Protein: Thioredoxin reductase
Amino acid sequence: MYDVIVIGGSFAGLTAALQLGRASRSVLVIDAGLPRNRTSAGAHGVAGWDGIAPAEILGRFRDDLKAYPHLSQRGGKVTAIGGQMGAFSVTLENGEDFAAKRLILAHGVRDILPDVPGLAEGWGRQVLHCPYCHGYEVKGEPLAVFATSHMGAHQALMLRADWSDRVTLITGGMDGLDHAALELAGVQMDSRALEAAQIDESGITLSLSGGDSQRFAALFLGPRTTLAESPAAHLGCALSDGPMGPFVKVGPMAQTSIPGVFAAGDVARPMPNINFAFADGAQAGSGCHASLLFPEIVTPVEAAQ
Structure:
């Protein structure tokens, strides 16, 4: 039996594992190999690694963890999870079973992109979600925002304020937007429906209803997210509602509502960011270690709070 199984081997999960490995605890990191930012060419705003591809950073990180003999890493998708504090069970798609005293959930969330041809192919390259992560690389260029929710107006105002004076919000006729505030800020609005997107190395061409097309350097949108069929859902962790979807409710030591289960990274916060994932992973790793030593001081969060 492992002291801890970490489900998810991206930035939060590996950081949590590092804290526990340095405490000489036996740790197994299980990773499905599908990090949320796998299509991004560079991780921006990350101190010391600005512009380095996320896959390269993770590769270096995994190599670092090999120095800790009590820490194991393996690929695989978790299909079943259960048990209780002190005796959790984790089953992989290939039928392998593992046991651990504690669990750390760092498997992230799944993005649900709008059903528009071309968006999935451009996701993480010319179809983007975060001005802080990707805005500087298209600064001053014509940018579009696809309003998948009212958060689209928020994105458009942010981009217009500090990244470009040529921002178009494609509303598709969405009601409830503050048109006066958007116009005052200089955001252009297009009420036509987005029907398709075509990407290339220099930008994205959007096909709009009526047969017209518009050219932009990038398209920003905020996809809905889901935890359906995830380990967090299987365990029944209490959730909070975020602007784009639910996330696992955690306490000050990254503990969830399930005794002995901790969570870190995108699965446990409404705002995804690599820097936050590092911090969350460190908190989950140290909180989990404290639970192994002093279980009475790490109490689960209340589901109703």
Remarks:
- DSSP finds eight helices and 19 strands in the chain.
- Residues 237 and 257 are 6 Å apart (CA to CA).
- The two ends are 33 Å apart (CA to CA).
- The chain has two domains: 2-111+224-297, 114-221.
